[in-house]
Amino acid sequence: MTVLIPDSLPxxxxxxHQLLAGGSGxxxxxxxxxxxxxxxxxxxxxxxxxxxLVELN
Length: 57
Hints:
By secondary structure, this protein is mostly loops. The protein has one helix and two strands.
């Protein structure tokens, strides 16, 4: 509920909870899942990324 859409986008001042199914918004149904602890309900986002190794001095 605290993740807000940036002002630079058309739905500014809207949070993700209002847009995702199962939240307080317009989408019907419920897309919430249980988290890795098998108890916490919410929307889980998984991102894949690739990068090069950066060596720290």
